[in-house]
Design goal:
This protein is α/β, with parallel strands linked by helices and 466 residues long. Helix content is 53%, strand content 10%. It contains 17 helices and ten strands. A seven-stranded mixed beta sheet has the order 3-2-1-4-8-6-9, with helices on both faces. The longest helix has 33 residues.
Length: 466
């Protein structure tokens, strides 16, 4: 294990002048060969036409032959539901088989320069914590290339950054005014000044493991085919409210079971928004981040898959504080769902090309993961309301198929929750029993996501942190 660097960390904060040309390229400099993969242009003409035709066919079918229509729709829905549920359960089980192990560097190993991109917006309160964790990395401080990215006018965050001690050579980069005011635009701006052979992204509130950078370097060294590795995100609530505990449980399943399984299968992975580590050369090859997509992480993961680049996982985690209030949770979740919709719609602009690039198996896996997340957010609440009406009204009857769906959904969710690693979170019996009450909240967030996608498609809902 590499001993912590004993270098004296000096306040080496530099603040280059804002570069408007660099900022314009960060927003609009998507390479021409990836121009069709940007969320900036929204729906294509054929997508709009296909959507209109589909709704017309469904409407006519419902009026002309309602019995046949609902029977056919139910059979399609049942088949899709079974495929999604089976695949997710299989991923959870497969993800239990071999968990990633932490890897360490020897004291004599020469470690490369590592770029840390950290976008901050109204984050003055958490800057001291961020500075402490950056300086606590068990990585030579003179080989850290830290880029702190803020927007013009965010003087509170700027002053908080200046008040802290940072590794020598840290740069405070102030983005010139411009659109879109999104995290991926800031990351692209920082990437254009990156010096490291490897690049990682952190959020202001993150508390990464001190050995995370070393573990990432070792994985890249052992597997030259890797373009990216994702570290697990662990939710540690400051106040363990019911909502925060369920958010943490979602993360525990996703990052400790589902993602490792997808990585082992070589399937497309929608990356998390932080603690993903890249070869800078591979990141440049795929064009960096789409500045117009509000889940730039998921979009980038699928673009890696389309370009035949491999994504892996590492063990050292990053701790995060889950949202504890519904209004904050809803804002964050609606942005995620809006970005999932953007990412899915971009990929479905040319399904044939996506199949050729990802492979048929990868394309199906993407539909059963990212597509399933979107579909479930649309259906959870309506399905719950229908089930409650059937239970409350003697005139309605769920029937054996619907009861089987209910039990299978809860069973897979409960077993998945019980299979999370002990270190990821503590699972209590009450949370296990109330899983079906948490899932429908996704539908509330989806309503807001769809409205925002129509009215303000590139608006970034900021998650506040204390």
């Amino acid at each position: 294990m590499l001993e912590p660097a004993r270098l004296r960390i000096r306040e080496g904060l530099a603040e280059p002048r804002p570069d408007r040309a660099r900022a314009d390229e960060a927003a609009n400099g998507f390479p021409d060969r990836f121009a069709g993969m940007s969320a900036r242009s929204g729906l294509t003409g054929w997508q709009r036409q296909t959507a209109r035709q589909m709704f017309s066919v469904l409407g006519i079918g419902g009026l002309v032959a309602p019995g046949l229509f609902w029977t056919g729709l139910s059979l399609v829905g049942l088949g899709l539901f079974c495929a999604i549920l089976f695949y997710r359960f299989a991923l959870v089980i497969y993800g239990c088989d071999r968990e990633p192990k932490a890897e360490y560097a020897s004291a004599s190993e020469l470690l490369p320069v590592y770029t840390l991109l950290i976008a901050l917006k109204d984050e003055a309160a958490v800057v001291p914590q961020l500075a402490r964790h950056i300086c606590a990395f068990e990585y030579p401080q003179d080989r850290l290339d830290v880029k702190l990215l803020i927007e013009t006018g965010d003087e509170a965050t700027r002053d908080a950054i200046r008040a802290q001690t940072w590794p020598e050579g840290t740069e405070l980069l102030v983005l010139p005014p411009g659109l879109p005011r999104t995290k991926p635009r800031a990351l692209n701006y920082g990437l254009s000044r990156a010096r490291g052979a490897f690049v990682t992204v952190y959020d202001a509130e993150d508390r990464p493991s001190p050995i995370q950078l070393i573990s990432a370097v070792r994985r890249f060294t052992h597997d030259p085919s890797l373009a990216c590795v994702q570290a697990p995100l662990v939710g540690i609530p400051k106040t363990p409210t019911w909502l925060a505990r369920h958010w943490a449980l979602e993360y525990a399943i996703q990052f400790n079971r589902v993602m490792p399984a997808l990585a082992r299968l070589g399937a497309p992975i929608a990356l998390g928004g932080t603690s993903n580590h890249f070869r800078r050369s591979a990141l440049k090859e795929v064009g960096g981040w789409d500045a117009w997509n509000v889940t730039e992480d998921a979009d980038l993961g699928l673009r890696f898959a389309r370009q035949g680049k491999k994504v892996g996982v590492i063990a050292p985690p990053t701790l995060e504080a889950p949202p504890e209030k519904f209004c904050i949770w809803q804002g964050q979740r609606s942005r995620w769902l809006k970005g999932f919709l953007q990412t899915w719609l971009v990929l479905m602009r040319d399904p044939g090309a996506a199949v050729r690039e990802m492979g048929f198996g990868g394309f199906v896996s993407m539909q059963l993961t990212l597509g399933a997340s979107i579909l479930s957010a649309f259906t959870h609440l309506p399905w719950l309301i229908w089930c409650l009406l059937c239970i409350a009204s003697p005139a309605l009857n769920l029937g054996p198929v619907s009861w089987s769906i209910l039990m299978a959904t809860y069973g897979v969710g409960a077993v998945s929750a019980c299979l999370v690693p002990r270190g990821a979170m503590r699972l209590c019996f009450f949370d296990l029993m109330t899983l079906p009450l948490y899932w429908p909240l996704q539908s509330v967030a989806m309503v807001r996501a769809v409205y925002s996608l129509i009215k303000t498609p590139h608006y970034w809902v900021k998650t506040p942190h204390d």
